[in-house]
Amino acid sequence: MTINGFSIGKHVIGKDKAFVIAEVAQAHDGSLGTAHAYIDAIAGTGVDAVKFQTHIAAEESTLDEQFRIKFSYQDKTRYEYWKRMEFTKEQWKELFEHASERGLVYLSSPFSVKAVEMLNEIGVPAWKVGSGEISTPDIMNTIVETGKPILLSTGMSNYQEIEDIVLMLKKRSVSLGIFQCASLYPTPLEKVGLNLINEFKDRFQCPVGLSDHSGSIYPGLASLTKGVDMLEVHVTLDKRLFGPDTASSVTIGELSILAEARDAFYLIEHNPVDKDSASAQLADTKLVFSKSIAPSRNLEKGTVLQREMLTLKKPGTGINSSEMHNILDRRLKTDVSAERLIKWSDLE
Question: CA-CA distance, 59 to 77, in Å (whole number)?
């Protein structure tokens, strides 16, 4: 299968090892300092990118929007919550620069045209489009006009809707990666949908990944064994922290495990072993573990060897078992101890 890869920074999506994104979303709870703390924590895990969400309340929401989960003790409306999650352009730029300094690709999902424009000015190298924005044409058109790669989540889309957006993006020569995603928070393991990874690859001929909201490392690990090109997981500094996505997130320690597993799986997968060559390299070791013909008890000089007098013992440096028929009925010309192997020189 030929997959058209594309670059985000130094990473070639679809050609290199899986591109792992740590999704902070609103885990910072509106604190700029906490957002910076997430960048530092994530930078030490070995993943490739950190992702936020850029919300501008007045540009994306109204007082009619309901809470997905009624969690907030301080926000009377969903609109107030989005307002509290806002950072200024200068603050978003500081986060971008901090991430770059720590070696992380900086991404942030926009939820309004103004957010797209602001992030584009800051210099984000690619777009992660959330599941709900596929059907928002003004946002999609503004993103496409930037010419930057698009990473598309599909949590609320059926096949026809995905095909329509993929066709539109390919017609406009946009580099594209698709995520299987279940828009359930947290996602039950039986609804993760790893079966769709290969289906998406066959159907859309582009890099495919998993955007996971299970709060567990198992879907991520399983997806890596399936050869995903991208993996995105929500992350939290601690499972006891307050927030709507904490239950859907992995910890920093678990994020490190996913990054280590990604590297290990890639190393294993891309280093095929030639069985004959490997065996030849272990010839000396094989002698240590294999066995040779030995007496089953002490035998005296002059004994005519019979099968019941013989056994097999380590190491394999003596007479091989395949030579058993050549030593039966042969006479010993010296005493042989049960603590040693039989040698050809012991035989008349």
Answer: 16
Between CA 345 and CA 146 the distance in angstroms is 83
Give me the residues paired with residue 292 across strands: 313
Can you name the residues that pair with 22 across neighbouring β-strands? Answer: 50, 233
Give the pair of three-digit tokens for residue 117.
């424009």
Residue 230 near residue 11, CB atoms below 8 Å: no
Report the alpha-carbon distance of residue 135 to residue 156 in Å, rounded.
Answer: 10
Beta bridge partners of 7: 12
Task: Tell which CATH architecture fits domain 13-269.
Answer: Alpha-Beta Barrel (3.20)
Length of the chain equals 348
Residue type at 302 in one-letter notation:
G
Alpha-carbon span 225 to 312, nearest angstrom: 42
Q: What is the mean pLDDT of residues 39-65?
A: 91
CA distance 334 to 300: 7
For domain 276-346, is the CATH number 3.90.1210.10? Answer: yes
What are residue 129's DSSP bridge partners? 152
Name the pLDDT band for 332 (thresholds 50, 70, 90): very high
Average pLDDT, the chain: 94
Please return the burial class of 235, using the count of CB atoms within 10 Å of its CB with bins 0-12, 13-18 and 19+.
buried
Longest dimension (CA), the chain: 105
Inform me whether the pLDDT recorded for 32 exceeds 60.
yes
Average pLDDT over residues 141-150: 97
Angstrom distance (rounded) from CA 314 to CA 200: 54
d(Cα 275, Cα 212) in Å, to the nearest integer?
A: 37
The set of long-range contacts for 317-323, using a CB threshold of 8 Å and a minimum separation of 24, is 317/287, 317/292, 317/341, 318/292, 318/293, 318/294, 318/342, 318/343, 319/292, 319/293, 319/343, 319/344, 320/292, 320/293, 321/291, 321/292, 321/293, 323/293
Domain boundaries, the chain: 13-269, 276-346
Q: Rounded to 5 degrees, what are φ and ψ at 112?
A: -160, 160
